[in-house]
Amino acid sequence: MTDGSLASYGWDEVWAARLAELPDGLVPGRVVRHDGSGLLVSSADGVVAVPLGPRLDPEPVVGDWVALDRDHPVAVLPRRSLLRRRAAIGEGQQSLAANIDVVLLVCGVDRPVKAGRIQRSATLARDAGAEPVVVLTKAALTDDPEALIRTVTEAQPGIDVLVVSVKEGRGLDELRARVEGRTVTLLGESGAGKSSIVNALLGREAASTGRVRTGDAKGRHTTTTRELHVLPGGGVLVDTPGIRAVGLLDDVEAVTETFADVDEVADGCRFTDCRHEGEPGCQVAEALADGRLTEARMAGWRGLRDEAEAAAFRASPQEQKRREKGSTRHSRDASRRKRR
Ligand SMILES: Nc1nc2c(ncn2[C@@H]2O[C@H](COP(=O)(O)OP(=O)(O)OP(=O)(O)O)[C@@H](O)[C@H]2O)c(=O)[nH]1
Ligand SMILES: [Mg+2]
Ligand SMILES: [Zn+2]
Question: Are residues 92 and 71 in the same domain?
């Protein structure tokens, strides 16, 4: 086996050191696909299919490096980052991908570009320790890309925005430069154009793409599993199914980072626990009055703060205890959720 092939998947000395802490004789592999029935793991010996067997803790997800013992994963190497969201149903969390450096927030311009969605997704990326980059794609379908860039940067000052058109090959070199050598995932609604970007960067039709409905440009959930592809110039891309809702977890810190401008102003408020809802000496109120902050930005901030706080409350020890005292059916549900 040569390390050359694994290097293209992102294997490096730091990972090798992690593996060296485990018993001898184990071989590294990267999880390249995860579906309901099992994993595909790429190792120096090729790709092995691993049926879901005895549970590992944590459960491996796409992007994870695992230690294999004769084609069976026996350990997950400590993650550098984990992209996760609140599960659409129930209160568990769903791990989307591991060891991600960059998250491309893909917005097709054939549909409205939503400020709230960009703020949420950026928060999700920061929660994972990854860098968010907005990609406005299908650029030829708008007359005024500049206006869309303004919408994005008003929603999220300072975020990087790339304008791309896969059909015309526009903006692909800039995008390639951003992703090369890194582990990158794409997030966005169904039909946004994620798989088309994956194919353009890979230079081949590796991922299937689907049509969108005429009228509202809604996609048809063409991509159904998360899958990792190796880029020709090095680095990997994780294509994901379109997601309708981006549920936040309890990471209030990540929200603070997304709204660094609000946070900086709020630092000057008279009360350290100011809610910026009419308290005396509130600097946020002043910034709103003199135009340094906009109502739209504050509305986004309030929504995300409330959501993160609610999630933090659900995860708090007191709340957990209160739940455990609930009916047995309740606690059985909770343990089932935990195992997912
Ligand atoms: N005109 C134009 N159409 C594009 C472009 N990129 C993607 N499309 C079209 O948009 C539709 C959806 O593209 P996909 O790449 O399948 O979208 P997706 O985000 O992967 O969708 P899901 O897998 O359902 O989440 C397809 O009909 C593509 O041909 C582009 O740059 N220009
Ligand atoms: Mg797709
Ligand atoms: Zn205040």
Answer: no
Question: Closest-lying ligand to the alpha carbon of 210?
Answer: 1
Q: What is the pTM of this model?
A: 0.76
Residues 166 and 30 in one domain: no
Higher pLDDT among residues 313 and 81, named by residue: 81
Give the Cβ contact number of residue 304 at 10 Å: 22
Residue located nearest, by CA, to atom 10 of ligand 1: 193
Residue nearest to atom 7 of ligand 1 (CA): 193
Tokens of 234: 């090095």
* CB of residue 219 inside a 6 A radius of ligand 1: yes
Atom of ligand 1 nearest to the CA of 165: 31
Instruction: Kindly report, residue by residue over 182-208, the tens digit of the pLDDT.
Output: 999 998 888 899 999 999 999 988 777
- Same structural domain for residues 87 and 61? no
Q: What is the CATH number of the domain that holds 95?
A: 3.40.50.300
Same domain, 209 and 95: yes
| Contact between residue 304 and residue 312 where contact means Cβ atoms under 8 Å apart | no
Residue 315 token pair = 């995860």
Ligand 1 touching residue 222 (CB < 6 A): yes
* Domain match, 69 and 197 both: no
Which two structure tokens, joined as six digits, stand for 133? Answer: 């980059």
State the distance from the centre of ligand 2 to the C-alpha of 221, rounded, in angstroms. Answer: 7
Whether the Cβ atoms of residue 132 and residue 122 lie closer than 8 Å to each other: yes
CA–centroid distance, residue 263 to ligand 3 (Å): 10
